[in-house]
Design goal:
Helix content: 25-40%
Shape: globular
Largest sheet: 3 strands, antiparallel
CATH superfamily: Aspartate Aminotransferase, domain 1
Strand order of the largest sheet: 1-2-3
Number of strands: 3
Order of helices and strands: HHEEHHEH
Number of helices: 5
CATH architecture: Alpha-Beta Complex
Radius of gyration: 18 Å
Oligomer: single chain
């Protein structure tokens, strides 16, 4: 019923997404003319994040590099919380939430470790880079019309966790 998942991000069966009913199709048809504008807005926001987060790369906050080029629509904006960062990912998420910044952990279980793919015979350790990413990625807020000020608040929130005394950006 839910893409083969009895709970979020845990797949016991190989599922599919085929729940587009007439009402949803009608709503999406109304939204479709705005899609290019929304994609451009998220692309702009991702560029802002990329520029502002460079100051934190040495401290373990690393944006995931875009290898897709200008066609990337940034459905998610994902950073990697490296081993050298002084806090664990959940602590970062909790601290940001306490100041009103919601983040997400998408795809916490690698595909090769999902029960739905157990028949392939893969085990923990077979794909160490994938497993590391699943433990270290954190999705920052990104959506059409996310403002520069909101992006700055997110980056300042991360900088504050590092004890950076001066804001990385000038807040108005």
């Amino acid at each position: 019923r839910n893409y083969g998942a009895p709970r979020k991000y845990f797949h016991t069966d190989i599922g599919k997404n085929s729940r587009l009913d007439t009402l949803q199709a009608a709503i999406l048809n109304v939204k479709l003319p705005y899609l290019t504008e929304w994609n451009q807005s998220r692309y702009w926001a991702a560029g802002q994040y990329d520029n502002l987060l460079r100051a934190l790369e040495g401290d373990g906050i690393v944006p995931i590099e875009n290898h897709s080029g200008p066609g990337h629509v940034y459905h998610l904006y994902v950073i990697r919380v490296g081993q050298q960062f002084p806090f664990k990912r959940q602590s970062i998420q909790d601290a940001l939430a306490s100041v009103g910044i919601q983040t997400g952990i998408h795809y916490p279980i690698p595909c090769h470790l999902q029960p739905a793919y157990k028949y392939l015979g893969y085990q923990a350790g077979d794909f160490p880079h994938t497993e590391a990413l699943c433990n270290e990625i954190l999705s920052l807020p990104i959506y059409p019309n996310l403002s520069k000020e909101q992006i700055e608040q997110v980056v300042d929130g991360l900088a504050n966790l590092l004890g950076v005394l001066e804001p990385l950006v000038i807040n108005h």
